[in-house]
Amino acid sequence: MNMREQIEAAAARYPDQRSAIMPALLIAQKEHGHLPGPVLEEVSDILGVERVWVYELATFYTLFHTEPVGLFHLQLCDNLSCMLRRSEDLLRHLETVLGIEKGGTTPDGLFTLSTVECLGACEMAPVMQVGDDYHGDLDIARIDALLDRLRAAAGQATGAELAAAGLPGE
Amino acid sequence: MFEPVLLRNMDVPDGHLLSSYEAGGGYQALAKALREHTPDEIIDLVKQSNLRGRGGAGFPTGLKWSFVPKRADKPKYLCCNADEGEPGTFKDRIIMERDPHQLIEGMAISAYAIGAETAYVYIRGEYVLAIHRLEQAIAEAHAKGYLGTRILGSDFNFVVHIHCGAGAYICGEETAMLDSLEGKRAQPRLKPPFPAVAGLYASPTVINNVETLVCVPHIVARGPDWFRSIGPDKSPGPKLYCLSGHVRNPGLYELPMGISLRELVEDRAGGPPPGRRIKAVIPGGVSAPLIPERGLDVGMDFDSLAAVGSMLGSAGVIVIDDSTCMVKVATRIIEFFHHESCGKCTPCREGLNWVVKVLRRVEAGQGVPDDLEQLEALCKGIFGNTFCALGDGAAMGLRAALAHFEHEFVAHIEEGRCSFH
Asked: What is the pLDDT of residues B149-180, one digit of tens each?
């Protein structure tokens, strides 16, 4: 299904089209990597809802990105349970090896580094989400191994995936 | 010996599949409910069981259901609160990942009881595996006739939709969740009207937590007396406890409601790391005021914890050992609430902003002598003056840290530094 068809299928679950804005934004973000103005306008046109309703959700909820993020978005939890298990050390290590500060993206566009509030996986603290996956019981050696795997995966990413992440591609 | 029921399928291979669930007796409670009971009888069973909401507030579930008008000219809705955002809590995620059919069966029986034909599961967007497993389970249940029209030959029709959240803690507040489901920014509503009368799309709506709903099939199958035989009579049942922080065996534990916090932390979860001592424990997610070590002999149930000035909340038990700076703990907790404040009401939005500023300077050793008075004045301005419980939770948490560990705050101000790091 293309983006329009996916959004229309999601909208069929609700009696009111406005309810479909959140699922539509998730679908659009999966397609485009982030949600620039023209994409928000497209979502509003597909659902036939006010543009301001779409903008207000895209800017209220933290999982929506109106600015580009790296191919891999490293989301390290720094809430209490992870803090107690020294997530701060992992943040400092990531900032050092990636050469960026929290909130930044590496110049090659591969990694964006963020801290996030509780991921609901405190039994495996410290924990970090990358894309769809949770990585738990982290320490510096595991972080390094994970970064190596992600770099290798980036080498095999398709042109469309790289383009969606704002990268030049092959 | 306590026999786990809510987590009984956790270690079953492929426990998330319908075939595994059915092999363990799954969906027989739904069949029994539809065959042997009227909707009102199910509500009565749940009332008799004394089941109280597991999302945090502990409101009696059967009573909540009974507020839904019997006759309504609008469709009724069931909403499952799976927006598990309370720091320290991960029980609902694990249920949905490993035993999603248990939740679907619980929702189907609950919807039958209140007369709803549609349910929305509001599940946080980060829970990608749980979302996938639940989608798969819903499709399997449809194919087998546990969802859809004329379920198991009865007149009951019921469908379940998943609605993914997008990273806002406030969506766990039930009226903010309804606004979010309606496609708005998640901000709490003024009550009344209560959701049972005018909730989703201004229709009668019941919102229940995942763990609450998965208790329901067991109450139908084994009876309310069985449920009440576990734990304290006013707050009974099997209970999921999420153990994290400074313990040797973090994880999800199912034990009777009312178990002692000390037993839970020291025996079940193995106590603190070698050479360390417990300093304090947060019993119910960061909204619950912390309890210092000397207070650990308290029962983990709604009433016992309320009696000592804390709360069971989501039973996210966070253990803090003696290597930890409590000013740093308090600062991190308040930074969280400040970040998640929805911005609707001034005491929470502006008050928490000031609390964070003061706490950060105290933590950095730049506090001034009247900062503790400032913090109490700010708490006073927030507590009881906000639309929802977010601001109250922040104020209560900070007050508990100040009450039990004031000497650490004072030391930061007087010495101009943190002695822990």
From this structure: 999 999 999 999 999 999 999 999 999 999 99
- CATH number for the region B326-415 comes to 1.20.1440.230
What CATH class does B18-228 carry?
Answer: alpha beta
The interface residues of chain B toward chain A in range 253-272, judged by CB-CB distance below 8 A, are: none
CA pair distance B63, A146, nearest whole angstrom: 49
- pLDDT at residue A99 in the model: 97
Which strand (E) or helix (H) includes residue A115? Answer: strand A111-116
Cα–Cα nearest to A128, from A106, A147, A108: A147
Q: Tell me the ipTM for this assembly.
A: 0.96
Is B238-321 a domain of CATH 3.10.20.600? yes
**% of chain A at pLDDT higher than 70:** 92
Query: Which residue spans within B238-369 are E strands per DSSP?
Result: 238-245, 251-256, 278-282, 291-292, 316-321
Partner A, chain B 59-98, Cβ-Cβ below 8 Å: 84-90, 92-93
pLDDT class of A156 with cuts at 50, 70, 90: confident
All structural domains of chain A, each given as residue ranges with its CATH number in brackets, are 3-60 (1.10.10), 72-164 (3.40.30.10)
pTM for the predicted model, two decimal places: 0.96
Taking only the tens place, the pLDDT of each residue in A9-55 is: 999 999 999 999 999 999 999 999 999 999 999 999 999 999 999 99
Spell out the domain ranges in chain B: 18-228, 238-321, 326-415
Whether A125 has its CB under 8 Å from any CB of chain B: the answer is yes
Angle at B306 between CA B305 and CA B309, to 5 degrees: 95
Chain B residues near residue A18 by CB distance under 8 angstroms: 182-184
Partner residue opposite B286 with nearest CB, options A16, A26, A80:
A80
Say whether residue A84 is in contact with chain B using an 8 A CB cutoff. Answer: yes
DSSP B151: G
Which residues touch B283 (CB under 8 Å, ≥6 apart)? B261, B291, B298, B300, B305, B310, B311, B312, B313, B315, B317
The amino acid that residue A107 corresponds to is: P
pLDDT band at residue A169 under the 50/70/90 scheme: very low
CA of B1 vs chain A CAs: smallest distance (Å):
25
Q: Which residues pair with B251 in a beta bridge?
A: B243
pLDDT of residue A70: 94
